[in-house]
Every structure is written in C-alpha cells, then in structure tokens.
Predict the structure.
Amino acid sequence: MSQDEGIVSVVVGTAGHIDHGKSALVERLTGVHPDRLKEEQDRGLTIDLGFANFALPDGRRVGIVDVPGHERFVKNMVAGATGVDLVLLVVAADDGVMPQTREHLEILGLLGLQHGLVVITKIDAAGVDADLLEVLELELRELLEGTFLAAAPIVRVSSITGEGIEDLRAAIGAAVQRIQPRSAEGAFRMPVQRVFSAQGFGTVLTGIPLSGGLRPGDVVEVLTRDGQRHKGKVRGLQAYGRKVDRVRAGHSSALNIADVDRRAVERGDAVCSPGVFAAQPMWEVRLTYLPSQQRPLEQRETIRFHVGTSELVGELVLLDHERLLPGESGLAQVRLHEGVVAAPGDRFVLRRHSPMDTLGGGVVLGASKWRLKPFKGFVLQRLEHKEQALGGGKEAVLVELRDARAPVRADDLVRAVARPKADIEIWLAELVAEGLAVEASGGKGAPSFVAVETWREAAEAFLAALADFHREHPFLDAAPKLELRARLARPEGLFVTLGQRLTDEGKVRAWPQGFSLASHEVALTPEAQGLAAALLATYQEHAFQPPTPAQALDAAPRDLSPEQARDVFQHLVERGELVDIGDELVFHRARYEEAKDLLRREVEARGPVASGAFKDLLGSSRRYAIPLLEHFDVVGFTRREGDLRALR
C-alpha cells in the first residue's frame, strides 16, 4: 500500500476569536502544539498558521490547520482557511460570541465552506455551568442561522481535562465521511504557505494542493507574483511529516524542490504543473458584499484581495453596478498591483485597504486580458456564461470558444481553463462531435477550433460577401481569394475551411482564382458582349505584339463604366479566351496556342530553340518572346537548358 493511502484527502481547520482555545484544542487532539514560532510560544499568541495531524476512529489520518484569531492576523487566517474542507468554529464557554467569531464565520462563508462543527471550549473554566452553556448554544444557533453551520453539531469540550474530546473526534470522523475528497485529477497547483531550507535538502515549500498530484522526479514551476517562472524537479515529498511517494489535492504537503532558490519564493506564490497557470494581475469575479457592512461599496475602491495564500493590494471595478449596497452581489474586475496565480472557481475574500475590515468575497471567474469598462452588455453576458460554466471543464472550453472571434488551439485554452492540454483536446473533440464546435484550421498546423455560433456567423458573412461581389461585378465568375478574405477579415485557417466546407455543401463553387455562389451565372449585357468582341478582335489582330490591358480598353468603343470594362476584360481571362501571362502581357487564346505549336514544331524539327530563334518564329520582339518563353517554363511546357528551350 502506498504511504499516502492512509491519509484522508480532507483538511480540518480551526476558526474563532483570539484566546478561545483553538491551539490548545489542536494539541489535545494531535499531541502537537501548533505554535512553531518562538514569539508565539513566548506570548502565548498564535500569529501564523500551525499544522498537525491526528488519527480518526477508523485509523486514517487527517490534517488540521490552526489559524490565528487576532484581528491583526486575519490575512494569515484566510491563507490557512483556503485549503480547508471541514472547519471547527471554536467559541470559549467563558467568553461567548466575540468580534472575530463573527468575522471568521463570514470569511468561511465567503470561501465557500460547506462542512463544519461548532466546538465550545473551556467548559471547565470558573463560572461556567450548565445554564450558561445552554444560553451560549441558543446564542450560537441564532448566530449560525442562514449560514453553512446552521445545522452543525455543537460539541462541548475541555482541552484541560479531556472531557468531550472523544465525542469531538467521533463527530469529526463522521463529518469527514460525508465530505467528497478533493480530486487528484488535472494539473497540480499548490499555493505556498511556508518556505524554508532544510540541511542537506535545499528548498522546501509547504501548502495544501488544490488540484492534481505529484511524485518524486516530477518537474514543476514555481510562479511568483512578479511574473517569474522558476522550474525545478521534485526531490522528495512529505505529507503530515511522513515521507510519501505521492502528494495530492487535500494533503497538507511539503515539497523538496531542486534548482529553486528559497529566496525567490514567498507565501502567496504557487507550485504548479508546467505551462498551465500564470500569475495574472487582473481577474474577473462574482462578488458578494457583506450584509454587515454599514455603507455602500463604491466604484474603484482600494482593496486587499485574498486568494489562495496571497494578499495583494489593488482596486475594484464594479461592472454591473454603480455601487454595491450591503448584501448585494455583482460582477467586477479586480486590478492588482502584482500578479497572482488563481483559477476559475477559486474563492476569494476582499478586505478594505484601511481600516482592514472584511468587505466581502466570492468566486473567481477567470483572468482578464484587458481592463473592462462597466455596463458593457457583451462583457456582462460573457461573464455570466463563464459563471454558469464553473466546475465544468468542457463547458468552460465552450465559453472560451464563444468568446473568441478567431479560431483557438488547445494550447491557447490551457491557461484560460487551467486544465492540462490533454484534457482540453478531449473536450474539443467532444464539442465537435456534439455539433457545438467546428475545426477551422484549414488543414495546416495544429488544429484550431471555433464555436458553432462563430462558424455560422462566418459562413453567413462568407456567402453575403460573395453576393455583394457578384452584385458589384456581375461579369466576373468568381471573387478572387485575396479580395474575398480582405472583405471577410477572417484568419486564413478559418477562411480556407469555410471555402472547403461551403463547397462540399454545394453552397459555393470553387474556381482556380477564387469562389462564387453556386447559383451565380455570368450573363453579359449587349454592351458587354460588344466590348468583349472588340477586345478579342484586337488581341487576335495584334497576334504576338499585343497591347497592354489599359491600351486595349482605351482603344475599344464602349458604353460601360471603366470598372465594368475591366470586369469584361477579366471575364475573358477567366474564361480562357485571353491568356494573361503577367507583367501586363495578354494574348488571344488562339495566338497563344499558335505560339506553342510553332515552338513545338521547331524543337521537334531542329532540337532546343534559342530565344532569338523563337522571336523570329513569332515575327515579334524580345519584349514579348522572352516573357512568353519564361511563362512556358513555369507552366511546364518547356524547360530551360542554358540559353535554349527544350520540351518537357
């Protein structure tokens, strides 16, 4: 059995007011006092996070995080509570409900906690009797009404005498059984809680992984708030102080990482699978403003943003409200002074910059590429779609496809969805099979995709652009590819795929020079027919010394506009009645074939022909003969041998 199989992927955490006995309770449960700093031990005050573990009644071990209760260390409390699945809300019998009891309860709700117990400690304290405990339980039930702890068991304990401790241990075991352990699937991500060096081991980073798993030898990235990526290899792993061959989401873990300088890492940075995550400074969120606040939350307020184990300063931009009233919820963008690693679905807490009281919190919807402006309908609709897709990998991919005008590749979606490329490729294939997405890479490079809505809009635009072109140029068979693509302003891969698919569907006809609607047929007007006949006569007459297109058009009588006249000329080229060899040189088809026939017979009779001899055959000049020979080389009729031409 793997060493990590005896560990439950659930983390227990404490919460509550200062001096209500949280650390003493942890010591009674685990045998380990969680205060590790000398200052904490000297002052008897928990300042930072403490970690321990203990055995459940079934023998499996579960980790516990002890958080500080003092109002000055709420940021440390939030950092610890981020990875917690089951909370013990601790209230001292001799003190009752206090300010940090209420604030911690609000923070736990904002972080999305759903499981917990209420622990009344110090039941052995002087002056505490049964009547006082009954009154306290009534007060607690009133406080907890409407929260995730409304129906939570209340357990009375004494950490001094041990009374109630076994009942608490049993209640924790029962609660753990009801919790779905965190999934070890997906990319690894662990917000860093502690950084230190161990003699002979190098850099050690600790924390609670939020997703994925790691084994020794795996390569990871340590992403720092300044945007740096420090790549290293996992040398060793511990979970709850024991060496293990694997850590996973929900384990309080220590990672020994080679090639990463501990001085480059601090709390709030993240250890991640390579290439999946990035530290970003702007995030889209759904925010709930606490009902306990006394005034509205104003636009662009300076805030402290707590996510993972980070605390960063920034400003809040409300997107669907001018201001938020207490108890209201809204969409917003958080603009931070530094980057932070997060993922859609992460919970966050907002605190006022000064004074540092808790304002609210909510859920991260995704990272922003641009600064968003309030009250933009398409932005709000996109964020609502992101919110609806939270927790669903394939649904999140579809939202990103719908948000992108250009085709996107699996690589482009990795960081947006915060999932490995292999998962995204599977979801993209499923979306295509379900008719919700279309591969639109034109058969070149890595496959790229668009949402079916984007595809339909682009297909309609393609057909509409062709209709416009035919209306403007009724004498031409097809819209040239370059002009059509310029009209559509679509990426090449999507344009190529559109042409292929619409041709296969019979809606479009492909020509060498471009595309036309399948229904389009050229019908020359009498005026156009007259011009066409005049042009053909001119080029027939001038044989191997033809005029330029502009000269021929100027010389021809016409009752058409200059643009219509040029289209008639191009119509003759498209139909092959005139042959355009480039560089303003055009020949009548009969004269072009005559030149080929003269050259063929000369080579067959006398062998390879020099350009001068070919000029004499045509009764023309080098100006026309040499470009014509070079054209014959290009189309594969002849091949050049020094200064001579032979037939291919």
